[in-house]
UniProtKB/TrEMBL annotation:
EC annotation from Swiss-Prot or TrEMBL: 2.4.1.-
The organism's place on the tree of life at top rank: Eukaryota
Protein's UniProt name: Glycosyltransferase
Any matching Pfam family: UDPGT
Keywords, alphabetical: Glycosyltransferase, Transferase
Keyword Transferase: yes
Amino acid sequence: MWTAVDRQDKRHEEPSTVEVSATSRYYIATKSLVKPRRRTMEQHFLVVTYAAQGHVNPALHLCRRLARVAGARVTFSTSISGHRRMFASSADQEVDDGVVCYVPFSDGYDGGFDRETGNRDEFRLRAKSVGTRTLAAIVRSLQQRGRPVTCIIHTLLLPWVADVAHDHGIPSVLYWIQPATVFAMYYHYFHGYDGLIASHGHDPQFEVTLPGLPPFKIRDLPSFLSITRPDDPYAAVTDMFRETFDVLDREEANSTARVLVNTFEELEGDALAAVAGQVKLIPIGPMLPSPLQLEGTKEAKGMASAGADLFKPDEKHYMEWLDSKPEKSVVYVSFGSLAVMKKRQAEEILRWLKENRKPYLWVVRKENRGELGDKLEEEGEGGMVVEWCSQVRVLSHPAVGCFVTHCGWNSTVESMVCGVPMVAVPQWSDQVTNAMLAELRGLGVRGELDGEGVLQGAELCRCLETVMGEGERGKEVRKRVAMWKERAREAVGEGGSSDRNLRAFVGEIASLK
Ligand code: UDP
Protein backbone atom coordinates (compact mmCIF):
# COMPACT_ATOMS: atom_id res chain seq x y z
CA MET A 1 0.00 0.00 0.00
CA TRP A 2 1.26 3.47 -0.86
CA THR A 3 1.08 6.44 1.43
CA ALA A 4 -1.00 9.28 0.06
CA VAL A 5 1.38 12.18 -0.36
CA ASP A 6 0.85 15.81 -0.98
CA ARG A 7 3.44 16.18 -3.71
CA GLN A 8 4.65 19.71 -3.94
CA ASP A 9 6.42 19.34 -7.22
CA LYS A 10 9.57 21.46 -7.10
CA ARG A 11 11.42 19.79 -9.90
CA HIS A 12 10.50 22.37 -12.51
CA GLU A 13 11.35 25.47 -10.54
CA GLU A 14 14.52 25.93 -12.54
CA PRO A 15 14.42 25.83 -16.34
CA SER A 16 15.84 22.68 -17.85
CA THR A 17 18.58 23.15 -20.38
CA VAL A 18 18.61 19.56 -21.58
CA GLU A 19 19.05 19.20 -25.30
CA VAL A 20 16.90 16.53 -26.91
CA SER A 21 17.54 15.34 -30.44
CA ALA A 22 14.92 16.03 -33.12
CA THR A 23 14.36 12.28 -33.53
CA SER A 24 13.53 11.70 -29.89
CA ARG A 25 11.22 14.70 -29.78
CA TYR A 26 9.32 13.30 -32.75
CA TYR A 27 9.13 9.89 -31.11
CA ILE A 28 7.77 11.27 -27.88
CA ALA A 29 5.26 13.46 -29.70
CA THR A 30 4.00 10.48 -31.71
CA LYS A 31 3.68 8.34 -28.59
CA SER A 32 1.73 11.01 -26.81
CA LEU A 33 -0.88 11.00 -29.61
CA VAL A 34 -1.48 7.33 -28.99
CA LYS A 35 -1.56 7.51 -25.20
CA PRO A 36 -1.69 10.95 -23.62
CA ARG A 37 1.06 11.48 -21.05
CA ARG A 38 0.85 13.70 -18.05
CA ARG A 39 3.91 15.64 -19.16
CA THR A 40 5.74 15.62 -22.43
CA MET A 41 9.26 14.26 -22.29
CA GLU A 42 9.08 13.10 -18.71
CA GLN A 43 12.25 11.39 -17.69
CA HIS A 44 12.01 9.21 -14.64
CA PHE A 45 15.22 8.03 -13.01
CA LEU A 46 15.06 5.21 -10.49
CA VAL A 47 18.20 5.39 -8.35
CA VAL A 48 18.82 2.17 -6.41
CA THR A 49 21.39 2.06 -3.65
CA TYR A 50 22.88 -0.25 -1.04
CA ALA A 51 21.85 0.74 2.49
CA ALA A 52 25.14 2.15 3.77
CA GLN A 53 25.69 5.83 4.56
CA GLY A 54 28.59 6.10 2.11
CA HIS A 55 26.29 4.87 -0.68
CA VAL A 56 23.09 6.68 0.33
CA ASN A 57 24.74 10.13 0.45
CA PRO A 58 26.19 10.29 -3.09
CA ALA A 59 23.05 8.58 -4.46
CA LEU A 60 20.82 11.22 -2.90
CA HIS A 61 23.03 14.05 -4.14
CA LEU A 62 22.74 12.58 -7.62
CA CYS A 63 18.92 12.36 -7.29
CA ARG A 64 18.74 16.03 -6.48
CA ARG A 65 21.09 17.00 -9.30
CA LEU A 66 19.01 14.98 -11.78
CA ALA A 67 15.81 16.63 -10.61
CA ARG A 68 17.41 20.04 -10.96
CA VAL A 69 19.33 19.57 -14.20
CA ALA A 70 16.74 17.50 -16.07
CA GLY A 71 13.53 18.53 -14.35
CA ALA A 72 13.19 14.77 -14.13
CA ARG A 73 11.05 12.69 -11.84
CA VAL A 74 13.39 10.86 -9.47
CA THR A 75 12.67 7.86 -7.29
CA PHE A 76 15.22 6.69 -4.73
CA SER A 77 15.14 3.09 -3.59
CA THR A 78 17.16 1.40 -0.90
CA SER A 79 16.45 -1.75 1.09
CA ILE A 80 13.69 -1.68 3.71
CA SER A 81 16.27 -1.87 6.53
CA GLY A 82 17.93 1.34 5.24
CA HIS A 83 14.60 3.08 4.59
CA ARG A 84 13.55 2.37 8.19
CA ARG A 85 16.70 4.05 9.44
CA MET A 86 16.19 7.07 7.18
CA PHE A 87 12.48 7.50 7.92
CA ALA A 88 11.73 5.97 11.30
CA SER A 89 8.04 6.88 11.18
CA SER A 90 7.27 5.81 7.61
CA ALA A 91 6.38 2.18 8.42
CA ASP A 92 8.12 0.94 5.26
CA GLN A 93 5.94 3.11 3.05
CA GLU A 94 6.67 5.55 0.29
CA VAL A 95 7.90 9.00 1.34
CA ASP A 96 7.93 12.05 -0.89
CA ASP A 97 9.89 15.20 -0.05
CA GLY A 98 8.65 17.16 -3.05
CA VAL A 99 11.83 16.58 -5.07
CA VAL A 100 12.62 12.90 -4.53
CA CYS A 101 10.23 10.03 -3.90
CA TYR A 102 11.56 7.21 -1.66
CA VAL A 103 10.27 3.70 -2.33
CA PRO A 104 12.00 0.84 -0.48
CA PHE A 105 12.58 -2.70 -1.78
CA SER A 106 13.05 -5.83 0.30
CA ASP A 107 16.38 -7.62 0.02
CA GLY A 108 15.28 -10.41 2.36
CA TYR A 109 16.95 -8.73 5.36
CA ASP A 110 14.30 -6.23 6.44
CA GLY A 111 15.64 -6.23 9.98
CA GLY A 112 19.15 -5.49 8.66
CA PHE A 113 22.17 -7.69 7.93
CA ASP A 114 24.44 -8.38 10.90
CA ARG A 115 27.90 -7.48 9.62
CA GLU A 116 29.60 -9.17 12.58
CA THR A 117 27.94 -12.57 12.43
CA GLY A 118 26.12 -12.71 9.07
CA ASN A 119 27.30 -14.89 6.20
CA ARG A 120 28.16 -12.57 3.28
CA ASP A 121 27.83 -15.26 0.65
CA GLU A 122 24.31 -16.05 1.83
CA PHE A 123 23.56 -12.34 1.84
CA ARG A 124 24.81 -11.97 -1.72
CA LEU A 125 22.57 -14.76 -3.03
CA ARG A 126 19.47 -13.96 -1.01
CA ALA A 127 19.64 -10.20 -1.62
CA LYS A 128 19.91 -10.94 -5.31
CA SER A 129 16.93 -13.30 -5.49
CA VAL A 130 14.59 -11.34 -3.18
CA GLY A 131 15.79 -7.94 -4.45
CA THR A 132 15.27 -8.90 -8.09
CA ARG A 133 11.67 -9.82 -7.36
CA THR A 134 10.75 -6.86 -5.17
CA LEU A 135 12.49 -4.23 -7.29
CA ALA A 136 10.78 -5.61 -10.41
CA ALA A 137 7.45 -5.21 -8.58
CA ILE A 138 8.30 -1.56 -7.87
CA VAL A 139 9.14 -0.93 -11.53
CA ARG A 140 5.81 -2.48 -12.60
CA SER A 141 3.87 -0.58 -9.96
CA LEU A 142 5.40 2.74 -11.03
CA GLN A 143 4.46 1.92 -14.62
CA GLN A 144 0.85 1.12 -13.61
CA ARG A 145 0.63 4.35 -11.66
CA GLY A 146 1.55 6.38 -14.74
CA ARG A 147 5.19 6.97 -13.76
CA PRO A 148 7.13 4.67 -16.09
CA VAL A 149 10.82 4.50 -15.25
CA THR A 150 13.03 5.60 -18.16
CA CYS A 151 16.45 4.82 -16.63
CA ILE A 152 17.65 2.78 -13.65
CA ILE A 153 20.85 3.92 -11.97
CA HIS A 154 22.43 1.71 -9.30
CA THR A 155 25.38 2.04 -6.94
CA LEU A 156 27.86 -0.67 -5.90
CA LEU A 157 27.18 -4.18 -4.57
CA LEU A 158 23.88 -4.45 -6.49
CA PRO A 159 24.90 -6.00 -9.84
CA TRP A 160 21.49 -7.72 -10.17
CA VAL A 161 19.75 -4.36 -10.60
CA ALA A 162 21.05 -4.24 -14.18
CA ASP A 163 19.16 -7.48 -14.91
CA VAL A 164 15.92 -6.01 -13.55
CA ALA A 165 16.42 -3.04 -15.89
CA HIS A 166 17.16 -5.26 -18.89
CA ASP A 167 14.13 -7.48 -18.18
CA HIS A 168 11.93 -4.38 -18.42
CA GLY A 169 13.66 -2.90 -21.46
CA ILE A 170 14.98 0.05 -19.44
CA PRO A 171 18.53 1.41 -19.82
CA SER A 172 20.67 0.69 -16.76
CA VAL A 173 23.62 2.73 -15.60
CA LEU A 174 26.22 1.95 -12.94
CA TYR A 175 26.99 4.81 -10.57
CA TRP A 176 30.56 4.28 -9.34
CA ILE A 177 30.76 6.09 -6.00
CA GLN A 178 34.49 5.58 -5.57
CA PRO A 179 37.30 7.29 -7.53
CA ALA A 180 38.06 6.45 -11.16
CA THR A 181 41.50 5.19 -10.02
CA VAL A 182 39.74 2.48 -8.00
CA PHE A 183 37.50 1.65 -10.96
CA ALA A 184 40.56 1.27 -13.21
CA MET A 185 42.24 -1.04 -10.67
CA TYR A 186 39.17 -3.28 -10.44
CA TYR A 187 38.78 -3.19 -14.22
CA HIS A 188 42.33 -4.34 -14.91
CA TYR A 189 42.20 -6.91 -12.11
CA PHE A 190 39.17 -8.57 -13.75
CA HIS A 191 40.70 -8.24 -17.22
CA GLY A 192 43.92 -10.18 -17.02
CA TYR A 193 45.85 -8.86 -14.00
CA ASP A 194 44.27 -11.00 -11.24
CA GLY A 195 47.04 -13.64 -11.46
CA LEU A 196 49.85 -11.09 -11.09
CA ILE A 197 48.15 -9.44 -8.13
CA ALA A 198 47.20 -12.71 -6.42
CA SER A 199 50.75 -14.01 -6.67
CA HIS A 200 52.04 -10.93 -4.82
CA GLY A 201 49.04 -10.43 -2.52
CA HIS A 202 51.17 -11.26 0.52
CA ASP A 203 53.71 -8.53 -0.16
CA PRO A 204 52.24 -5.08 0.60
CA GLN A 205 55.35 -3.33 -0.73
CA PHE A 206 55.35 -5.08 -4.15
CA GLU A 207 55.07 -2.52 -6.93
CA VAL A 208 52.38 -3.02 -9.58
CA THR A 209 52.03 -1.21 -12.89
CA LEU A 210 48.61 -1.35 -14.56
CA PRO A 211 47.87 0.17 -17.99
CA GLY A 212 47.44 3.93 -17.82
CA LEU A 213 47.99 4.22 -14.05
CA PRO A 214 51.11 5.39 -12.23
CA PRO A 215 52.92 2.52 -10.43
CA PHE A 216 51.54 1.74 -6.97
CA LYS A 217 52.10 -0.78 -4.20
CA ILE A 218 49.93 -3.79 -3.40
CA ARG A 219 49.02 -2.07 -0.11
CA ASP A 220 47.37 0.71 -2.18
CA LEU A 221 45.02 -1.68 -3.98
CA PRO A 222 41.39 -1.84 -2.77
CA SER A 223 41.68 -4.44 -0.01
CA PHE A 224 39.10 -6.78 -1.58
CA LEU A 225 41.55 -7.38 -4.43
CA SER A 226 44.42 -8.55 -2.26
CA ILE A 227 42.37 -11.25 -0.53
CA THR A 228 44.38 -14.45 -0.83
CA ARG A 229 42.23 -17.01 1.04
CA PRO A 230 39.03 -18.33 -0.59
CA ASP A 231 37.47 -18.68 2.89
CA ASP A 232 38.08 -15.00 3.68
CA PRO A 233 34.76 -13.57 4.98
CA TYR A 234 35.02 -10.74 2.45
CA ALA A 235 35.58 -12.97 -0.62
CA ALA A 236 31.82 -12.57 -1.30
CA VAL A 237 32.36 -8.82 -1.72
CA THR A 238 35.05 -9.45 -4.36
CA ASP A 239 32.49 -11.70 -6.08
CA MET A 240 29.94 -8.88 -6.12
CA PHE A 241 32.49 -6.63 -7.81
CA ARG A 242 33.29 -9.43 -10.27
CA GLU A 243 29.58 -9.69 -11.15
CA THR A 244 29.45 -5.93 -11.67
CA PHE A 245 32.29 -6.11 -14.17
CA ASP A 246 30.70 -9.14 -15.88
CA VAL A 247 27.54 -7.07 -16.39
CA LEU A 248 29.62 -4.20 -17.79
CA ASP A 249 31.35 -6.59 -20.20
CA ARG A 250 27.97 -7.82 -21.45
CA GLU A 251 26.73 -4.25 -21.85
CA GLU A 252 29.95 -3.23 -23.53
CA ALA A 253 29.44 -5.96 -26.12
CA ASN A 254 26.14 -4.21 -26.99
CA SER A 255 27.76 -0.76 -26.73
CA THR A 256 25.37 0.20 -23.91
CA ALA A 257 27.77 0.29 -20.94
CA ARG A 258 27.70 3.65 -19.15
CA VAL A 259 29.27 4.42 -15.79
CA LEU A 260 28.68 7.64 -13.89
CA VAL A 261 31.68 8.32 -11.62
CA ASN A 262 31.82 10.50 -8.53
CA THR A 263 34.98 12.30 -9.59
CA PHE A 264 35.99 15.07 -11.99
CA GLU A 265 38.21 15.22 -15.03
CA GLU A 266 40.72 17.67 -13.56
CA LEU A 267 41.35 15.41 -10.52
CA GLU A 268 41.61 12.02 -12.22
CA GLY A 269 42.23 12.57 -15.93
CA ASP A 270 44.84 9.76 -15.98
CA ALA A 271 42.59 7.11 -14.44
CA LEU A 272 39.64 8.10 -16.62
CA ALA A 273 41.88 7.74 -19.68
CA ALA A 274 43.22 4.39 -18.41
CA VAL A 275 39.97 2.60 -19.34
CA ALA A 276 38.60 5.07 -21.88
CA GLY A 277 38.98 2.60 -24.76
CA GLN A 278 37.06 -0.08 -22.86
CA VAL A 279 34.25 1.54 -20.85
CA LYS A 280 32.47 4.86 -21.10
CA LEU A 281 33.17 6.57 -17.78
CA ILE A 282 31.24 9.78 -17.20
CA PRO A 283 32.77 11.89 -14.41
CA ILE A 284 30.00 13.94 -12.78
CA GLY A 285 31.41 14.71 -9.34
CA PRO A 286 32.17 15.64 -6.81
CA MET A 287 28.58 15.02 -5.79
CA LEU A 288 28.08 17.69 -3.20
CA PRO A 289 25.59 17.96 -0.41
CA SER A 290 23.02 20.55 -1.27
CA PRO A 291 23.82 23.03 1.49
CA LEU A 292 27.24 23.49 -0.09
CA GLN A 293 26.14 23.60 -3.65
CA LEU A 294 22.80 25.27 -3.32
CA GLU A 295 23.21 27.47 -0.29
CA GLY A 296 20.08 29.44 0.36
CA THR A 297 17.91 27.83 -2.33
CA LYS A 298 14.62 26.04 -1.79
CA GLU A 299 16.29 22.73 -2.59
CA ALA A 300 18.74 23.16 0.24
CA LYS A 301 15.78 23.43 2.61
CA GLY A 302 14.28 20.29 1.05
CA MET A 303 17.55 18.49 1.66
CA ALA A 304 17.60 19.52 5.27
CA SER A 305 14.19 17.94 5.80
CA ALA A 306 15.02 14.78 3.83
CA GLY A 307 16.09 11.83 5.94
CA ALA A 308 19.55 11.19 4.56
CA ASP A 309 21.14 10.09 7.84
CA LEU A 310 21.13 6.44 8.88
CA PHE A 311 22.38 7.50 12.33
CA LYS A 312 20.74 9.61 14.98
CA PRO A 313 22.46 13.02 15.15
CA ASP A 314 24.10 13.78 18.48
CA GLU A 315 22.22 16.41 20.43
CA LYS A 316 25.36 18.04 21.79
CA HIS A 317 25.82 21.62 20.60
CA TYR A 318 28.96 20.92 18.65
CA MET A 319 28.43 23.73 16.12
CA GLU A 320 28.21 26.28 18.95
CA TRP A 321 31.29 24.70 20.50
CA LEU A 322 33.10 25.15 17.16
CA ASP A 323 31.96 28.80 17.12
CA SER A 324 33.97 29.34 20.30
CA LYS A 325 37.26 28.12 18.75
CA PRO A 326 39.85 30.13 16.79
CA GLU A 327 40.05 29.80 13.01
CA LYS A 328 41.64 26.57 11.69
CA SER A 329 42.49 25.38 15.20
CA VAL A 330 40.24 22.31 15.61
CA VAL A 331 41.16 18.74 14.66
CA TYR A 332 38.09 16.87 13.41
CA VAL A 333 38.40 13.06 13.77
CA SER A 334 36.01 10.59 12.13
CA PHE A 335 36.38 7.11 10.67
CA GLY A 336 33.03 7.12 8.87
CA SER A 337 29.93 5.03 9.22
CA LEU A 338 31.26 1.47 9.08
CA ALA A 339 34.78 1.20 10.47
CA VAL A 340 35.00 -0.38 13.88
CA MET A 341 37.97 1.18 15.59
CA LYS A 342 40.45 -1.17 17.25
CA LYS A 343 40.69 -0.69 21.01
CA ARG A 344 44.38 0.18 20.76
CA GLN A 345 43.70 2.70 17.99
CA ALA A 346 41.06 4.43 20.08
CA GLU A 347 43.40 4.50 23.08
CA GLU A 348 46.25 5.97 21.02
CA ILE A 349 44.00 8.75 19.74
CA LEU A 350 42.57 9.40 23.19
CA ARG A 351 45.99 9.52 24.82
CA TRP A 352 47.30 11.89 22.20
CA LEU A 353 44.23 14.11 22.34
CA LYS A 354 44.60 14.44 26.10
CA GLU A 355 48.31 15.22 25.96
CA ASN A 356 48.04 17.69 23.13
CA ARG A 357 46.60 21.16 23.44
CA LYS A 358 44.77 21.24 20.09
CA PRO A 359 40.98 21.32 20.41
CA TYR A 360 39.30 18.32 18.84
CA LEU A 361 35.88 17.14 17.72
CA TRP A 362 35.80 13.36 17.56
CA VAL A 363 33.01 11.14 16.19
CA VAL A 364 32.82 7.83 18.04
CA ARG A 365 29.73 5.94 16.96
CA LYS A 366 27.64 4.16 19.58
CA GLU A 367 28.88 0.70 18.56
CA ASN A 368 32.50 1.84 19.02
CA ARG A 369 31.96 3.22 22.49
CA GLY A 370 32.25 -0.09 24.31
CA GLU A 371 35.94 -0.17 23.44
CA LEU A 372 36.58 3.06 25.30
CA GLY A 373 34.28 2.60 28.27
CA ASP A 374 33.95 5.60 30.53
CA LYS A 375 37.22 7.14 29.39
CA LEU A 376 35.40 9.22 26.79
CA GLU A 377 33.35 10.97 29.43
CA GLU A 378 36.52 12.48 30.88
CA GLU A 379 36.72 14.88 27.96
CA GLY A 380 37.16 18.47 29.04
CA GLU A 381 37.01 21.92 27.54
CA GLY A 382 39.66 21.00 25.01
CA GLY A 383 37.58 18.51 23.13
CA MET A 384 34.17 17.16 22.31
CA VAL A 385 33.18 13.58 21.47
CA VAL A 386 29.92 13.02 19.58
CA GLU A 387 28.14 9.90 18.32
CA TRP A 388 27.25 11.37 14.92
CA CYS A 389 27.41 14.86 13.47
CA SER A 390 26.49 16.73 10.34
CA GLN A 391 29.93 16.20 8.82
CA VAL A 392 29.67 18.66 5.96
CA ARG A 393 28.56 21.43 8.29
CA VAL A 394 31.50 20.63 10.56
CA LEU A 395 33.99 20.60 7.70
CA SER A 396 32.57 23.91 6.42
CA HIS A 397 33.14 25.58 9.78
CA PRO A 398 36.09 28.04 9.75
CA ALA A 399 37.38 26.67 13.09
CA VAL A 400 38.24 23.28 11.57
CA GLY A 401 41.89 23.09 10.54
CA CYS A 402 42.40 19.39 9.83
CA PHE A 403 40.44 16.18 9.24
CA VAL A 404 41.85 12.92 10.61
CA THR A 405 39.93 10.57 8.34
CA HIS A 406 39.66 6.93 7.31
CA CYS A 407 39.46 8.26 3.73
CA GLY A 408 36.07 6.93 2.72
CA TRP A 409 35.58 8.55 -0.69
CA ASN A 410 32.73 10.78 0.52
CA SER A 411 34.77 12.04 3.45
CA THR A 412 37.76 12.62 1.16
CA VAL A 413 35.70 14.58 -1.34
CA GLU A 414 33.87 16.56 1.36
CA SER A 415 37.18 17.52 2.95
CA MET A 416 38.53 18.67 -0.42
CA VAL A 417 35.44 20.70 -1.27
CA CYS A 418 35.51 22.37 2.16
CA GLY A 419 39.24 23.10 1.83
CA VAL A 420 40.32 21.11 4.90
CA PRO A 421 43.71 19.31 4.80
CA MET A 422 43.63 15.62 5.72
CA VAL A 423 45.58 13.17 7.81
CA ALA A 424 44.73 9.88 6.11
CA VAL A 425 44.33 6.77 8.25
CA PRO A 426 42.85 4.27 5.79
CA GLN A 427 41.41 1.02 7.10
CA TRP A 428 40.24 -1.16 4.19
CA SER A 429 38.35 -1.33 0.86
CA ASP A 430 38.97 1.68 -1.41
CA GLN A 431 40.17 3.80 1.52
CA VAL A 432 43.79 2.78 1.01
CA THR A 433 43.68 3.85 -2.65
CA ASN A 434 41.84 7.04 -1.76
CA ALA A 435 44.56 7.86 0.79
CA MET A 436 47.24 7.31 -1.85
CA LEU A 437 45.37 9.57 -4.26
CA ALA A 438 44.80 12.26 -1.63
CA GLU A 439 48.51 12.33 -0.81
CA LEU A 440 49.51 12.33 -4.49
CA ARG A 441 47.27 15.34 -5.16
CA GLY A 442 48.67 17.15 -2.13
CA LEU A 443 45.42 17.10 -0.15
CA GLY A 444 47.13 15.92 3.02
CA VAL A 445 49.49 13.33 4.41
CA ARG A 446 49.08 9.64 5.04
CA GLY A 447 49.82 8.35 8.52
CA GLU A 448 52.12 5.34 8.69
CA LEU A 449 50.43 2.51 10.57
CA ASP A 450 52.31 0.09 12.79
CA GLY A 451 52.41 -3.71 12.35
CA GLU A 452 48.90 -4.03 13.83
CA GLY A 453 47.45 -1.40 11.52
CA VAL A 454 47.32 1.24 14.26
CA LEU A 455 48.29 4.89 13.90
CA GLN A 456 50.32 5.56 17.01
CA GLY A 457 49.99 8.81 18.91
CA ALA A 458 53.50 10.01 18.01
CA GLU A 459 52.80 9.47 14.30
CA LEU A 460 49.46 11.28 14.58
CA CYS A 461 51.35 14.18 16.18
CA ARG A 462 53.88 14.24 13.36
CA CYS A 463 51.14 14.28 10.72
CA LEU A 464 49.17 17.04 12.42
CA GLU A 465 52.28 19.13 12.80
CA THR A 466 52.98 18.63 9.10
CA VAL A 467 49.55 19.72 7.81
CA MET A 468 48.70 22.36 10.43
CA GLY A 469 52.17 23.69 11.25
CA GLU A 470 54.19 26.48 9.67
CA GLY A 471 56.72 24.22 7.93
CA GLU A 472 57.12 24.25 4.13
CA ARG A 473 55.16 21.00 3.64
CA GLY A 474 52.21 22.35 5.62
CA LYS A 475 52.13 25.56 3.61
CA GLU A 476 52.30 23.57 0.37
CA VAL A 477 49.47 21.22 1.46
CA ARG A 478 47.23 24.15 2.40
CA LYS A 479 47.97 25.84 -0.95
CA ARG A 480 47.08 22.67 -2.87
CA VAL A 481 43.94 22.08 -0.82
CA ALA A 482 42.75 25.61 -1.61
CA MET A 483 43.46 25.01 -5.30
CA TRP A 484 41.52 21.70 -5.41
CA LYS A 485 38.64 23.25 -3.49
CA GLU A 486 38.24 25.80 -6.28
CA ARG A 487 38.65 23.25 -9.06
CA ALA A 488 36.12 20.87 -7.51
CA ARG A 489 33.54 23.62 -7.15
CA GLU A 490 34.18 24.80 -10.71
CA ALA A 491 33.71 21.26 -12.06
CA VAL A 492 30.18 20.98 -10.65
CA GLY A 493 29.31 24.64 -11.10
CA GLU A 494 27.28 25.86 -14.08
CA GLY A 495 29.24 25.05 -17.25
CA GLY A 496 31.98 23.12 -15.40
CA SER A 497 33.26 19.78 -16.73
CA SER A 498 31.08 17.59 -14.48
CA ASP A 499 28.03 19.77 -14.98
CA ARG A 500 28.40 19.48 -18.76
CA ASN A 501 28.92 15.72 -18.51
CA LEU A 502 25.79 15.24 -16.43
CA ARG A 503 23.68 17.35 -18.79
CA ALA A 504 25.01 15.44 -21.81
CA PHE A 505 24.24 12.13 -20.06
CA VAL A 506 20.68 13.24 -19.32
CA GLY A 507 20.24 14.32 -22.94
CA GLU A 508 21.58 10.98 -24.17
CA ILE A 509 19.19 9.01 -21.95
CA ALA A 510 16.30 11.22 -23.11
CA SER A 511 17.17 10.43 -26.71
CA LEU A 512 16.87 6.68 -26.00
CA LYS A 513 13.17 6.89 -25.12
N1 UDP B 1 29.09 11.27 8.09
C1 UDP B 1 28.27 12.13 8.77
N2 UDP B 1 28.46 12.28 10.12
C2 UDP B 1 29.40 11.62 10.82
C3 UDP B 1 30.26 10.74 10.10
C4 UDP B 1 30.08 10.58 8.75
O1 UDP B 1 27.40 12.79 8.19
O2 UDP B 1 29.47 11.81 12.05
C5 UDP B 1 28.88 11.09 6.62
C6 UDP B 1 29.99 11.72 5.83
O3 UDP B 1 29.70 13.08 5.60
C7 UDP B 1 30.02 10.89 4.56
C8 UDP B 1 29.47 9.54 5.02
O4 UDP B 1 28.89 9.72 6.30
O5 UDP B 1 29.19 11.45 3.57
C9 UDP B 1 30.54 8.47 5.13
O6 UDP B 1 30.93 8.06 3.88
P1 UDP B 1 32.43 7.71 3.55
O7 UDP B 1 32.47 7.29 2.11
O8 UDP B 1 33.32 8.82 3.91
O9 UDP B 1 32.79 6.50 4.50
P2 UDP B 1 32.06 5.13 4.92
O10 UDP B 1 31.17 5.47 6.03
O11 UDP B 1 31.33 4.62 3.70
O12 UDP B 1 33.19 4.26 5.34
